[in-house]
Amino acid sequence: MKEIRIPGAAHWRGILALAGGYLLLILYALLLIVLNYAGGLRTYFAEQGSGFLSMGAYILLLFFIIYYYYYFEDRDFLVRGKELALIYTLIFVSVVACTLVGRYFSLYARPFALLGFLCLFLFNRRQAIVINFVFSMLLFVIDAYTSGFEAQGSDISGYASLLICFASGTLAIFVAGGVKTRGGMLITSVVLSLITAVMGFLVELPSTDLSDWIFYVAVFGYRIMGCMIAAVLALFVLPLFEVIFNRLTVFRLRELTSASAPMLQRLRVEAPGTFNHSLIVAQLAESCALAIGENAELARAAAYYHDVGKLKQPECFTENQTDYNVHDELTPELSADIIRSHAKDGYDLLMAAHLPREIADVAREHHGTLPIKYFYDKAMRLSGGDANIKDYSYLGPKPSTRIAAIIMIADASEAAARAIRDRSPENVERIVRSIIEERMDLDQFSECSITMRELSIIRRTLVEALSGVHHHRVKYPAIRFNRARQAVKEEKEE
Ligand SMILES: [Fe+2]
Ligand SMILES: [Fe+2]
Q1: CB neighbours of 343 closer than 8 A, spacing ≥ 6?
Q2: Residues 75-104, buried b or exposed e (16+ Cβ, 10 A)?
Q3: How remote is the CA of residue 368 from the centroid of ligand 2, in Å?
Q4: pTM score, two decimals?
């Protein structure tokens, strides 16, 4: 029987998110009407029921603008639905924050920049600008139909407010773009608040009666407070959204890569060799991610945790061994099994510790389905050529993201560069090139969207960094002096 395909059926989660967000906002608008109109809903609908229908239509139109933005930009967004639900939730929270502050504190202190901050940290700059643009119109519509222009005065709920909301949110997105810490966020909000307050004053200058200067000073102060409230609220609610929607923000990534992160502390104490290796891979991965326009903070964090699976048996991995090698006493099959399980063990450990899935996925994928050459070779020698390559290969999956691919290459390049004496750019280039080519031959990049151009940028970045990271210490002259400062004998150089 032929399958019946319903157009857009794959987006049902996205449509559900839109419907849920819309319903929530309409219910909230009804609540505002009950609060703002003395006669309640009955009087409101008798007098301006058609206005409510207009508002409903406007809000639906604005919600669809966001929906169609993703329809053309990133359809996976609609298929998953979760992110779209987050966006409508953020809009709802921002509308609630603005209306509550406007109603119970001051109309001038509404935290217009809140949504800009939240979308910037939970999504990215481009999405934040689009969502903030829609939000400013949405707030304008809700203001207009639930409190009425006449009730609030056209200078506040009218076009000036629309303009200030849009400009303040957009400015917040621009000025907070480089913020990496929560402290930095507060400093940014001070800059933003001053700009917003001056801008607000200039926008309303034509209708300003400067003889009432006390009022304008108060408005100036309220606008400053509005931006500060936005920043503080953003910092307060961000962790909630990070956890509920399992989103990564620059703040969470910073915390995960700080020296006090519990699993990194464990790695430093229990597997110091792996810890040092991870630090170098993190530097390399960060540079590569920057070079190809990927999320450098995420690359760095994922690299820090890529080998935590080795915590299960740290002594089985070369970088943590001194003289004794446990593998001398094991069969190559058992050795390979221990080595390859570190990818899956890392994933399990990270998921159990509630670390972000993006980081856990990298731990599982960073060796793809590559063979463990050393033990395969040992098995071939011991068995006289009777060994199955599958028993000596990682279990996968292959890297599913560009960041996992970067870490796969940086990981192998770091280990190879550590093992060689000649770290001239030419030699490092030869090694990194062969690492990338081998992985291409073994089809390791077929599950991610990395391009040939990006692979060659990664190769150049790694060569530049590794020739620098592992440079040889300058050799000291092999002469020793006595107290009389005379050369007494030559010693073996370091
Ligand atoms: Fe590894
Ligand atoms: Fe590694």
Answers
A1: 309, 363, 364, 365, 366, 367, 394, 395
A2: eebbeebebbbbbbbbbbbbbebbbebbee
A3: 12
A4: 0.74
Residue type, 263: M
Q: Which ligand is nearest to the CA of 310?
A: 1
Ligand nearest to the CA of 416: 2
Q: Report the 3 state secondary structure along 219-272.
A: HHHHHHHHHHHHHHHHHHHHHHHHHHCCCCCHHHHHHHCCCCCHHHHHHHHHCH
Ligand nearest to the CA of 316: 1
Closest to 63 measured CA to CA, from 118, 117, 16, 110 = 16
- The two three-digit tokens of residue 104, written as one number: 């119970």
Centre of ligand 1 to C-alpha 408, Å, is 8
Say how far apart CA 7 and CA 4 lie, in whole Å: 10
Cα 260 to ligand 2 centroid, rounded to whole Å: 21
For the chain, domains (ranges, CATH) are 9-247 (no CATH), 251-469 (1.10.3210)
Q: Is residue 124 left, alpha or beta, with left meaning phi > 0 and alpha meaning psi from -120 to 50?
A: beta
Tell the burial category of 151 from Cβ atoms under 10 Å away from its Cβ (0-12, 13-18, 19+): exposed
Contact 247, 82 (CB under 8 A): no
Query: In whole angstroms, what is the distance from residue 411 CA to residue 427 CA?
Result: 17
What separation in Å is there between the alpha carbon of 330 and the centre of ligand 2?
A: 22
Cα(353) to ligand 2 centroid in Å equals 20
Length of the chain: 494
431 DSSP β-pair partners: none
Dihedral sign computed on CA atoms, order 123, 128, 132, 134: negative
Our measurement of the distance from residue 365's CA atom to the centroid of its chain's CA atoms, rounded to an integer in Å, reads 19
Q: Are 331 and 313 in contact (CB under 8 A)?
A: no
pLDDT mean values, one per 10 residues, the chain (494 residues): 63 90 94 82 80 91 94 83 91 95 90 94 92 94 74 54 89 88 86 88 74 82 92 92 84 88 94 94 96 93 96 91 84 91 95 91 96 90 85 92 96 91 89 95 93 96 84 53 61 39
Nearest CA among 124, 54, 114, 57 for reference residue 89 = 114
Q: And the tokens for 189?
A: 């909000």
Number of Cβ within 10 Å of residue 417's Cβ equals: 23
Q: How far is the CA of 450 from the centre of ligand 2 (A)?
A: 20
